[in-house]
Amino acid sequence: xxxxxxxxxxxxxxxxxPFSFNPGVLGAEEVEIVVEYCGLCHSDLSIINNxxxxxxxxxxxxxxxxxxxxxxxxxxxxxxxxxxxxxxWNSGSCMHCHQxxxxxxxxxxxxxxxxxxxxxxxxxxxxxxxxWVIPLPDKLDxxxxxxxxxxxxxxxxxxxxFDIKPTHHVGVVGIGGLGxxxxxxxxxxxxxxxxxxxHESKTAEAKSFGAHHVISSRDSTAMxxxxxxxxxxxxxxxxxxxxxxxxxxxxxxxxxxxxGAVLEPMQIAAIDLIFGQKRVSGSPTGxxxxxxxMLEFAARHDIRPQVEHFPMSRVNEALxxxxxxxxxxxxxxxADFA
Length: 338
What we know:
About 25% of the residues lie in helices and about 25% in strands. It has about 350 residues and is of the alpha/beta class.
Protein backbone atom coordinates (compact mmCIF):
# COMPACT_ATOMS: atom_id res chain seq x y z
CA UNK A 1 0.00 0.00 0.00
CA UNK A 2 1.31 3.45 -0.93
CA UNK A 3 2.02 5.64 2.08
CA UNK A 4 -0.43 8.41 2.89
CA UNK A 5 0.85 11.97 3.14
CA UNK A 6 -0.53 14.00 6.02
CA UNK A 7 0.04 16.80 8.51
CA UNK A 8 0.75 15.78 12.11
CA UNK A 9 1.71 17.24 15.47
CA UNK A 10 4.27 15.31 17.50
CA UNK A 11 3.60 16.87 20.90
CA UNK A 12 1.36 19.27 22.84
CA UNK A 13 1.08 22.70 21.20
CA UNK A 14 3.60 21.77 18.52
CA UNK A 15 3.07 22.94 14.96
CA UNK A 16 1.93 20.42 12.39
CA UNK A 17 4.61 19.01 10.12
CA PRO A 18 4.52 16.86 6.97
CA PHE A 19 4.05 13.24 8.00
CA SER A 20 3.58 9.98 6.14
CA PHE A 21 2.24 6.63 7.29
CA ASN A 22 1.41 3.21 5.92
CA PRO A 23 -2.28 2.45 6.53
CA GLY A 24 -1.82 -1.30 6.07
CA VAL A 25 -4.29 -3.64 4.43
CA LEU A 26 -7.81 -2.26 3.98
CA GLY A 27 -10.16 -3.95 6.44
CA ALA A 28 -13.18 -5.92 5.24
CA GLU A 29 -15.60 -3.29 6.62
CA GLU A 30 -13.43 -0.26 5.90
CA VAL A 31 -13.86 2.49 3.34
CA GLU A 32 -10.97 4.55 1.99
CA ILE A 33 -11.70 8.14 1.00
CA VAL A 34 -9.66 10.67 -0.95
CA VAL A 35 -9.93 13.85 1.10
CA GLU A 36 -11.13 16.89 -0.83
CA TYR A 37 -12.06 19.22 2.05
CA CYS A 38 -11.66 19.02 5.80
CA GLY A 39 -13.12 21.37 8.36
CA LEU A 40 -10.88 22.74 11.07
CA CYS A 41 -12.72 22.50 14.40
CA HIS A 42 -11.77 23.86 17.82
CA SER A 43 -11.72 20.23 18.94
CA ASP A 44 -8.75 19.71 16.61
CA LEU A 45 -6.93 22.46 18.47
CA SER A 46 -7.85 20.89 21.82
CA ILE A 47 -6.54 17.51 20.67
CA ILE A 48 -3.30 19.01 19.32
CA ASN A 49 -2.77 20.76 22.68
CA ASN A 50 -3.86 17.67 24.66
CA UNK A 51 -6.37 19.81 26.57
CA UNK A 52 -8.51 16.74 27.23
CA UNK A 53 -5.61 14.45 28.24
CA UNK A 54 -6.50 11.89 25.59
CA UNK A 55 -4.23 12.73 22.64
CA UNK A 56 -2.02 10.04 21.12
CA UNK A 57 0.98 11.45 19.25
CA UNK A 58 1.81 11.80 16.46
CA UNK A 59 -1.71 13.09 15.88
CA UNK A 60 -3.18 13.76 12.43
CA UNK A 61 -6.18 16.02 13.19
CA UNK A 62 -9.24 16.53 11.02
CA UNK A 63 -12.69 15.10 11.70
CA UNK A 64 -14.96 17.05 9.34
CA UNK A 65 -13.98 15.24 6.18
CA UNK A 66 -15.55 15.53 2.75
CA UNK A 67 -14.20 13.30 0.01
CA UNK A 68 -14.70 10.59 -2.57
CA UNK A 69 -14.69 6.82 -2.02
CA UNK A 70 -11.71 5.17 -3.76
CA UNK A 71 -11.64 1.72 -2.11
CA UNK A 72 -14.06 -0.49 -0.19
CA UNK A 73 -13.61 -3.67 1.82
CA UNK A 74 -15.33 -6.92 0.89
CA UNK A 75 -18.03 -6.53 3.57
CA UNK A 76 -18.82 -2.83 3.16
CA UNK A 77 -22.52 -1.95 2.91
CA UNK A 78 -24.34 1.12 1.68
CA UNK A 79 -21.32 2.84 0.13
CA UNK A 80 -19.97 2.57 -3.40
CA UNK A 81 -16.90 3.67 -5.33
CA UNK A 82 -16.71 7.32 -6.48
CA UNK A 83 -19.48 8.32 -4.09
CA UNK A 84 -19.11 11.66 -2.32
CA UNK A 85 -19.24 11.11 1.43
CA UNK A 86 -18.45 12.67 4.78
CA UNK A 87 -16.87 11.43 8.03
CA UNK A 88 -17.23 13.25 11.34
CA TRP A 89 -15.98 12.85 14.91
CA ASN A 90 -16.29 9.06 14.91
CA SER A 91 -14.83 6.71 12.34
CA GLY A 92 -15.92 3.43 13.91
CA SER A 93 -17.91 1.65 16.62
CA CYS A 94 -18.42 -1.99 17.60
CA MET A 95 -21.84 -2.30 15.87
CA HIS A 96 -23.05 -5.02 18.28
CA CYS A 97 -23.47 -3.40 21.72
CA HIS A 98 -26.80 -2.10 23.04
CA GLN A 99 -26.01 1.49 22.08
CA UNK A 100 -24.99 0.59 18.53
CA UNK A 101 -27.95 -1.72 17.97
CA UNK A 102 -30.44 0.84 19.33
CA UNK A 103 -29.22 3.64 17.06
CA UNK A 104 -26.93 5.46 19.49
CA UNK A 105 -23.65 4.22 18.03
CA UNK A 106 -22.00 7.53 18.90
CA UNK A 107 -22.36 6.45 22.55
CA UNK A 108 -20.66 3.09 22.01
CA UNK A 109 -18.11 2.46 24.77
CA UNK A 110 -15.53 1.46 22.17
CA UNK A 111 -16.37 4.06 19.52
CA UNK A 112 -13.29 5.09 17.55
CA UNK A 113 -12.77 8.86 17.42
CA UNK A 114 -11.43 9.91 14.04
CA UNK A 115 -8.49 11.79 15.58
CA UNK A 116 -7.68 9.84 18.75
CA UNK A 117 -5.65 6.69 18.11
CA UNK A 118 -6.60 7.05 14.45
CA UNK A 119 -5.22 9.25 11.68
CA UNK A 120 -7.69 11.97 10.72
CA UNK A 121 -8.51 14.05 7.69
CA UNK A 122 -5.53 16.41 7.43
CA UNK A 123 -4.27 13.83 4.97
CA UNK A 124 -4.51 12.66 1.38
CA UNK A 125 -6.77 9.80 2.36
CA UNK A 126 -8.83 8.64 5.33
CA UNK A 127 -10.23 5.28 6.39
CA UNK A 128 -13.41 4.63 8.35
CA UNK A 129 -15.96 1.91 9.05
CA UNK A 130 -18.75 1.93 6.47
CA UNK A 131 -21.41 2.76 9.08
CA TRP A 132 -19.69 6.08 9.77
CA VAL A 133 -19.20 7.02 6.12
CA ILE A 134 -22.20 9.22 5.36
CA PRO A 135 -23.29 9.75 1.72
CA LEU A 136 -23.71 13.42 0.82
CA PRO A 137 -27.07 14.57 -0.57
CA ASP A 138 -26.74 15.83 -4.13
CA LYS A 139 -27.96 19.33 -3.26
CA LEU A 140 -25.41 19.84 -0.48
CA ASP A 141 -22.54 22.24 -1.17
CA UNK A 142 -19.49 20.00 -0.65
CA UNK A 143 -17.04 22.89 -0.27
CA UNK A 144 -18.78 24.20 2.86
CA UNK A 145 -20.33 20.99 4.21
CA UNK A 146 -17.40 19.72 6.31
CA UNK A 147 -18.24 21.69 9.48
CA UNK A 148 -21.75 20.18 9.48
CA UNK A 149 -20.19 16.79 10.32
CA UNK A 150 -19.09 17.90 13.80
CA UNK A 151 -20.21 21.41 14.65
CA UNK A 152 -23.46 21.06 12.74
CA UNK A 153 -24.53 17.75 14.22
CA UNK A 154 -23.53 18.96 17.70
CA UNK A 155 -26.20 21.67 17.63
CA UNK A 156 -28.70 19.72 15.51
CA UNK A 157 -28.73 16.57 17.64
CA UNK A 158 -30.46 18.19 20.68
CA UNK A 159 -33.40 19.18 18.46
CA UNK A 160 -33.87 15.50 17.62
CA UNK A 161 -32.98 13.95 20.95
CA PHE A 162 -35.23 16.11 23.10
CA ASP A 163 -38.20 16.29 20.72
CA ILE A 164 -38.06 20.02 20.14
CA LYS A 165 -41.19 21.18 18.33
CA PRO A 166 -41.69 24.08 15.88
CA THR A 167 -43.83 25.77 18.54
CA HIS A 168 -40.92 25.84 21.01
CA HIS A 169 -38.74 28.82 21.83
CA VAL A 170 -35.02 27.95 21.61
CA GLY A 171 -32.10 30.08 22.80
CA VAL A 172 -28.49 29.80 21.69
CA VAL A 173 -25.61 31.15 23.78
CA GLY A 174 -22.58 32.17 21.74
CA ILE A 175 -22.58 33.34 18.11
CA GLY A 176 -19.49 31.50 16.93
CA GLY A 177 -18.50 28.33 15.15
CA LEU A 178 -21.23 26.27 16.80
CA GLY A 179 -23.72 28.97 17.66
CA UNK A 180 -24.21 30.41 14.18
CA UNK A 181 -25.17 26.94 12.93
CA UNK A 182 -27.43 26.46 15.95
CA UNK A 183 -29.35 29.58 14.96
CA UNK A 184 -29.73 28.40 11.37
CA UNK A 185 -30.97 24.95 12.36
CA UNK A 186 -33.39 26.18 15.05
CA UNK A 187 -34.89 28.75 12.66
CA UNK A 188 -35.32 26.16 9.88
CA UNK A 189 -36.83 23.77 12.46
CA UNK A 190 -39.60 26.34 12.88
CA UNK A 191 -38.77 27.57 16.37
CA UNK A 192 -38.77 31.06 17.77
CA UNK A 193 -35.06 31.72 18.25
CA UNK A 194 -33.17 33.97 20.66
CA UNK A 195 -29.42 34.55 20.43
CA UNK A 196 -27.39 35.45 23.52
CA UNK A 197 -24.05 37.14 22.95
CA UNK A 198 -21.59 39.22 24.96
CA HIS A 199 -20.84 41.22 21.78
CA GLU A 200 -23.59 43.66 20.84
CA SER A 201 -21.83 44.17 17.50
CA LYS A 202 -23.04 40.72 16.45
CA THR A 203 -26.74 41.64 16.64
CA ALA A 204 -27.33 42.14 12.92
CA GLU A 205 -25.30 39.08 12.02
CA ALA A 206 -27.15 36.89 14.53
CA LYS A 207 -30.44 37.97 12.97
CA SER A 208 -29.09 37.12 9.51
CA PHE A 209 -28.39 33.60 10.81
CA GLY A 210 -31.99 33.19 11.96
CA ALA A 211 -32.39 34.80 15.38
CA HIS A 212 -35.71 36.53 15.98
CA HIS A 213 -34.33 38.19 19.11
CA VAL A 214 -30.78 39.04 20.22
CA ILE A 215 -29.96 39.66 23.88
CA SER A 216 -26.71 40.98 25.29
CA SER A 217 -25.66 38.66 28.09
CA ARG A 218 -23.97 41.68 29.71
CA ASP A 219 -27.29 43.55 29.96
CA SER A 220 -28.93 42.52 33.24
CA THR A 221 -32.22 44.24 32.35
CA ALA A 222 -32.50 42.43 29.02
CA MET A 223 -31.57 39.14 30.68
CA UNK A 224 -34.28 39.63 33.30
CA UNK A 225 -36.85 40.33 30.58
CA UNK A 226 -36.00 36.94 29.05
CA UNK A 227 -36.90 35.06 32.25
CA UNK A 228 -39.29 32.13 31.78
CA UNK A 229 -39.36 32.40 27.98
CA UNK A 230 -37.31 29.45 26.69
CA UNK A 231 -38.06 25.75 26.28
CA UNK A 232 -34.40 24.98 25.57
CA UNK A 233 -31.21 27.01 25.89
CA UNK A 234 -28.22 25.56 24.03
CA UNK A 235 -24.85 26.70 25.37
CA UNK A 236 -22.19 26.53 22.66
CA UNK A 237 -19.30 28.32 24.38
CA UNK A 238 -16.55 26.64 26.43
CA UNK A 239 -16.23 29.14 29.27
CA UNK A 240 -17.90 29.41 32.67
CA UNK A 241 -21.07 31.52 32.68
CA UNK A 242 -23.66 32.89 35.11
CA UNK A 243 -25.57 29.61 35.24
CA UNK A 244 -28.20 30.88 37.70
CA UNK A 245 -29.11 33.73 35.35
CA UNK A 246 -29.31 31.39 32.36
CA UNK A 247 -31.52 28.92 34.25
CA UNK A 248 -33.94 31.75 34.98
CA UNK A 249 -34.57 32.18 31.23
CA UNK A 250 -36.17 28.71 31.11
CA UNK A 251 -39.86 27.99 31.30
CA UNK A 252 -41.07 25.24 33.65
CA UNK A 253 -39.75 21.92 32.30
CA UNK A 254 -37.15 23.88 30.32
CA UNK A 255 -33.73 22.48 29.55
CA UNK A 256 -30.27 24.04 29.76
CA UNK A 257 -28.22 22.01 27.29
CA UNK A 258 -24.43 22.12 27.10
CA UNK A 259 -22.51 21.36 23.92
CA GLY A 260 -19.47 23.56 24.57
CA ALA A 261 -16.68 21.77 26.44
CA VAL A 262 -16.66 23.92 29.60
CA LEU A 263 -13.70 22.59 31.60
CA GLU A 264 -14.55 24.26 34.93
CA PRO A 265 -17.17 22.70 37.26
CA MET A 266 -20.61 24.24 36.81
CA GLN A 267 -21.94 25.96 39.93
CA ILE A 268 -25.69 25.26 39.93
CA ALA A 269 -27.97 25.43 42.95
CA ALA A 270 -30.36 22.51 43.35
CA ILE A 271 -33.18 24.90 44.24
CA ASP A 272 -32.87 26.51 40.80
CA LEU A 273 -33.68 23.14 39.27
CA ILE A 274 -36.35 22.01 41.71
CA PHE A 275 -38.62 25.02 41.29
CA GLY A 276 -39.78 24.88 37.70
CA GLN A 277 -38.67 21.26 37.27
CA LYS A 278 -35.77 22.32 35.08
CA ARG A 279 -33.12 20.13 33.52
CA VAL A 280 -29.42 20.39 32.75
CA SER A 281 -27.97 18.08 30.10
CA GLY A 282 -25.17 17.71 27.60
CA SER A 283 -24.42 15.78 24.44
CA PRO A 284 -21.53 14.94 22.12
CA THR A 285 -22.02 14.88 18.34
CA GLY A 286 -24.59 12.37 17.08
CA UNK A 287 -25.21 8.90 15.70
CA UNK A 288 -24.56 8.01 12.09
CA UNK A 289 -28.35 8.03 11.51
CA UNK A 290 -28.57 11.51 13.02
CA UNK A 291 -25.71 12.64 10.80
CA UNK A 292 -27.54 11.44 7.69
CA UNK A 293 -30.77 13.10 8.87
CA MET A 294 -28.94 16.35 9.56
CA LEU A 295 -27.31 16.40 6.11
CA GLU A 296 -30.68 15.80 4.42
CA PHE A 297 -32.23 18.60 6.49
CA ALA A 298 -29.34 20.95 5.65
CA ALA A 299 -29.66 20.16 1.95
CA ARG A 300 -33.43 20.71 1.99
CA HIS A 301 -33.15 24.09 3.72
CA ASP A 302 -29.85 25.13 2.12
CA ILE A 303 -28.16 25.45 5.49
CA ARG A 304 -24.48 26.23 4.98
CA PRO A 305 -21.90 27.05 7.64
CA GLN A 306 -20.19 30.39 7.13
CA VAL A 307 -16.67 29.32 6.22
CA GLU A 308 -13.21 30.62 5.40
CA HIS A 309 -10.99 28.49 3.16
CA PHE A 310 -7.27 27.80 3.53
CA PRO A 311 -5.18 25.38 1.49
CA MET A 312 -4.19 22.44 3.69
CA SER A 313 -0.53 23.32 3.12
CA ARG A 314 -1.20 26.46 5.24
CA VAL A 315 -2.72 24.47 8.08
CA ASN A 316 -0.56 26.10 10.77
CA GLU A 317 -1.67 29.54 9.62
CA ALA A 318 -5.27 28.33 9.76
CA LEU A 319 -4.76 26.96 13.28
CA UNK A 320 -3.33 30.29 14.44
CA UNK A 321 -6.30 32.09 12.89
CA UNK A 322 -8.67 29.79 14.79
CA UNK A 323 -6.77 30.13 18.08
CA UNK A 324 -6.85 33.93 17.79
CA UNK A 325 -10.66 33.87 17.82
CA UNK A 326 -10.84 35.65 14.47
CA UNK A 327 -12.38 32.82 12.41
CA UNK A 328 -15.78 33.76 10.92
CA UNK A 329 -17.06 31.26 11.69
CA UNK A 330 -15.66 27.92 10.57
CA UNK A 331 -12.48 27.09 8.66
CA UNK A 332 -12.28 24.57 5.82
CA UNK A 333 -8.97 23.24 4.53
CA UNK A 334 -8.79 22.46 0.84
CA ALA A 335 -6.61 19.40 0.24
CA ASP A 336 -3.64 20.38 -1.92
CA PHE A 337 -1.24 17.46 -1.68
CA ALA A 338 0.98 17.12 -4.72
